[in-house]
Amino acid sequence: MRILVVMGTRPEAIKLAPVVAALRRRKGFRTLICATAQHRELLDQVLRLFRLKPDFDLDLMRPGQTPDAVAKRVVASLGPLLARVKPDMVVVQGDTTTAAAAALSAAERGIPVAHVEAGLRSFDFKDPFPEELNRVFIDTISSLVFPPTPKAKLNLFREKLNGRLSLMTGNTVVDALKSAEGGQAPKHVNPQEVLVTLHRREIHGKPLKRIYTSLLGLVKRHEDLLFVYPVHPNPLILKTAKRMLRHSRIRLLPPLSYPDFLAHLKRSLFVVTDSGGVQEEAVCLGKPVLVVREITERPEVLASGAGRLLGLNPARLERWTTRLLTDPALRRKMSHGRGLYGDGRAAERVAAGIAHWLGRGPRPKEWRA
Ligand code: UDP
Q1: Which end of the chain has a smaller Cβ tally under 10 Å, C or N?
Q2: Which domains does the chain have, with CATH numbers?
Q3: What would the pLDDT profile of 7-22 be if each residue is shown by its tens digit?
Q4: Whose CA is closest to 60, among 43, 46, 41, 74?
Q5: pTM here?
């Protein structure tokens, strides 16, 4: 059986690395990797870490690319590749344009698609764009869907599965996190270190500038506060960050290796982020999360009490940062999300699900058709 795993960005590689490893542990499977390299540097950093060598590299990244241009290039390159390789299944993860375009190419050729991290919904096609659109599209045309949580499973159930098979697995980010822990953060620990990541499309422009002004105001008001911010290489973000965030206690860093990022996360008091993966990791490591987004497709983080959805609202960011800095009891109360995203064996379940679907393994418990 030939499985083609397609990935294009950092979070896909992080969350698919354990799936590739689990599939490669199974006899009778040949698992090939196709990198679209939608994000070149960030993808390569993760591929190196997990010692994954793409069998096919489409190298599609272009400066200033838009989602529709990426989709067009993925479809144009992947179509002929699928016709040549003839995989028995294509595996995609999450909600990127790479994943959606790969699913489309596979479906067009009658190749079944398995979707890892299925069923997440913000219920607003414009936020996040194009991710929500991508998720719904991928889930609709997949033969196999792997929701990470009960909530995601319920979303898929409500949309009627129409013959697709759904197996709840937990999130493979927990598997990845467990295998990548042990990185380095600089030895000196600031008493009030807070990790920041901000990069989503929704925040670009004015909202980002307002949030940066808040971060500056906060370090001025709290003399022990240190923001550590590995900045996404997107030029729109990087330029604004370098221009606006000039302060000795706002440390702008290049993208960190995954283990080093986790080391910083572990020693932070809490996290300010608009990233999906970072929310999940923070919760797994018992860190409170302030989510700088208007809408979330990860309501579990909020329901667990570990996260707060602040909107793109500087005043709320200032209020909540100050509360968390000054109230250890609140921090403790918001540190109880461990286990929310599974037990670190999600990838094994994904591999078992795929094997069964392809007639090469027993039926995993909890199938839902
Ligand atoms: N990450 C990393 N180094 C960094 C910043 C983030 O390895 O400097 C990891 C992080 O741990 C998480 C993933 O990248 O697993 C999140 O990626 P991103 O924010 O690009 O995507 P999103 O989660 O928003 O889809």
Answers
A1: C
A2: 2-171+342-357 (3.40.50.2000), 192-333 (3.40.50.2000)
A3: 999 999 999 999 999 9
A4: 74
A5: 0.96
